[in-house]
Amino acid sequence: xxxxxxxxxxxxxxxxxxxxxxxxxxxxxxxxxxxxxxxxxxxxxxxxxxxxxxxxxxxxxxxxxxxxxxxxxxxxxxxxxxxxxxxxxxxxxxxxxxxxxxxxxxxxxxxxxxxxxxxxxxxxxxxxxxxxxxxxxxxxxxxxxxxxxxxxxxxxxxxxxxxxxxxxxxxxxxxxxxxxxxxxxxxxxxxxxxxxxxxxxxxxxxxxxxxxxxxxxxxxxxxxxxxxxxxxxxxxxxxxxxxxxxxxxxxxxxxxxxxxxxxxxxxxxxxxxxxxxxxxxxxxxxxxxxxxxxxxxxxxxxxxxxxxxxxxxxxxxxxxxxxxxxxxxxxxxxxxxxxxxxxxxxxxxxxxxxxxxxxxxxxxxxxxxxxxxxxxxxx
Length: 379
Hints:
Elements: H1 2-17, H2 24-35, E1 39-45, E2 53-57, H3 74-85, E3 93-95, H4 96-100, H5 109-117, E4 120-129, E5 135-143, H6 154-192, E6 197-202, E7 207-210, H7 212-220, E8 223-227, E9 230-234, H8 239-251, E10 264-266, E11 274-278, E12 291-298, H9 307-314, H10 318-328, H11 333-340, H12 344-358, H13 363-372
Antiparallel strand pairs: 1-2, 1-5, 3-4, 4-5, 6-7, 6-12, 8-9, 10-11, 11-12
C-alpha cells in the first residue's frame, strides 16, 4: 500500500506543478485518485459570490457499474457537507461523521438531514483560503450504502491533508499571477501609447520590454543596439556609467526611486544625440530581480504639441505652457525670450512659477517630468 500511496502522491505533485486555473480538473482527478474517492467537487470563489470554477469528477464511479446507489449530481450531493466544513478551520479535510460529532453541529438539522439521505458510505470536505479572500472548497465521497459501504482509509486522508498546504500555496500563486498579468497588460498598453521610446531593463542591462518606438531606434543600431537581449551603446559609450545610475535608482529607499534628475546623452555617428532618462517607476525586491523603465528621446523625430495637455495637468497659463514645451524640446530661455518677444527676466519668472506648479526645483527636473510624465503619453 505504501508504494501505491507514494505513486499517487507523485501524480498529485506533478499535477500541482503544472496547475493553472484552467487545469484544476486535472488536479481534482489526481486528488480523487490519491484518496480513492468515487466523486469529488472543487468550487473556487469568494463568499457570497457564485463560484468562478466548479468542477466534478466521477473518478472510480465510472469503473464501478454495479454500484447500488447512484450519484448523478455530485455538486448538489456534496455541497451541503462543503458548506458545513466552512465552519471549521481551513487547511484540512473533515469526515462527515467527524463533523456530526462537533458540539456546535450535532443538533444541526441541516447536516443530520443530509447525512440520512446521503448516497455516500463515506465522505469528507474541507477548504483552503487564498491571500485575496478567495476560498477553494473541496469535497470527496465514496458511493454505497452507509451500513455496508467502503470508508476512506486514514492513511490516504492524512496524505491528502499533508498536500493541501501546497495546493493552497499554488492557488495563491495563481491569483498573484493573474494579477500580474492584468497589471502587465495595463503597463504594456500605457507604454505602447508613448510618443517616445520606452524600454524596461533589469539590473544586468537585459531589455525585458520595448515599445514600437524603442524597437525602431534599436533596429537602426546607431547610438543604441541589442546584443542578444542586452542593451549596448553603439558606437562604444559609457554603458557602465548608465547602468550604475539604473542600479542606484532601483536600490533607493524612496518610493519612486532616487529619481536621477539629469538626462543621459547617447552620441550617434550621423545624427543628433539620443537622450535617455530613467523613469520614476521601478520594482523593488532582490537586487537581481529589480527593473526600471528607460525612456528614449530622439531629437530628430518630429515633436508633438503637448501645450494643451500640460496646461490642463499642471494648471499653467498659455505663456507658461509654451515656455515649458520649448524647454522640454531643448530650447534655451534666451532663445525663447527672443522668439516670443519677451524679456529674459519675464521668462525666468515664468519658469519659477512652473517649478512651483509642477513641484520641481530646477530646469533638469521639470524637463524630465514632462518627458516621462503624463504629457509623454500624447501621441
